[in-house]
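As promised in the previous annual report, we have extended the structural survey to additional targets. Below is the entry for Lysophospholipase.
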Amino acid sequence: MTSFGGTSPPYQRTFTHVQHEICALVLYRASRCHDGPVDQEVCHVIPSNTTIYEFNPFKFGSWDPTTYGFVPLEYLGSNFSGGVLTGDEECVRGFDNVGFVMGTSSSLFNQVFLEVNSTFLPQPAKDLVNKILSPLTDDNNNDITEYQPNPFYGYHNSTSRVAQERSLTLFDGGEDLENIPFHPLIQPHRYVDVIFAIDSSADTQYHWPNGTSLVATYERSTLIQFDSSGNLGNGTSFPAVPDTDTMVNLGLNTHPTFFGCNSSNTTNITPLIVYIPNYPYVYPSNISTFDLSYNVSQSDGIVENGYNVATMGNGSANATWPTCVGCAIISRGLERTKTPVPEVCTLCFQHFCWDGSLDGTNASTPYEPPIQVGPTVKSGALRERYASPIVTAYLAVMILFMVS
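The corresponding structure token record, generated without further manual editing, is:
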């Protein structure tokens, strides 16, 4: 078990941390309801102060002071107590399975349970879905993933929310509105210079992003826990971002935008955020999470649009974009070495950096962007508006078949 800033109790195999030599996949998860007896209905609504856990190729754990420890991923199934194996306990392997780890966030039952009453389904259908899903979302936590034994049992007893829990319940980390997994990357120990944040969230009525994830991460980085856990932000820093209305009104969710261009505006050094929102360059890729299948033309359109989002229409929307990507990557390095900013980068930052302007006016009409380049394609917004209820009904029938 490793606690950064403290000691590392021994375990049966030496773990070596490797820096700057490989590209590592980091998966982001969160936990819920570890603060004693709670109302189970409230438990399904995920608060912003939930503990965030991460999986990386080597370890599983959390930087949050509410756990603040990591276990070697290879031994995740072992029965740790106080950070060590006790008595005759042996190391357990096999939990470091990609399918199992990714499956931790694959359950949509709890989200269907929360969203069904806001759909266009008739009331009898809503009642049916609620009746079917309720047994999955009660005290037995069947709607989420349960890790048992809890690897952090008896660890950091004075500050950990899960130290007295025999099992650890995890779910999709995006359910606390942090759909973009910034949290593992803004940890001071990682010294990250730049984050390319691809936002395909369905924040608006017609399933386009509006920066909700940016706002959620910023707000979480400033949270103070009024208990023994201390500051939940725990030294993390995130650049100031505008509210979601400003994002839409100023068009910041229609093209790449840089946040945190002036690092002196934050208490601690924070990565430069290159925010790249989903936008219909050539195809209405505003698909719903509840869409369960896609035909070939849909898949091709979504992939092609993703290419255009990443390249700004292959340079047709802004020919300087490839150069400005390079400027974003070297920005923090220029600051550290006190190297003068090249003129071309100065122009890039003037164009792509958020200048702090705000416009919090509530939009009178729902946000529905038009196709930007390429052939005219009818927006998928109308399709999406009615797709989710249909899929919800389909899920209800499917679950009914499974449990019958």
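Residues 27 and 143 are 19 Å apart (CA to CA). The first strand starts at residue 27 and ends at 31. These points will be discussed at the next consortium meeting with the crystallography subgroup.
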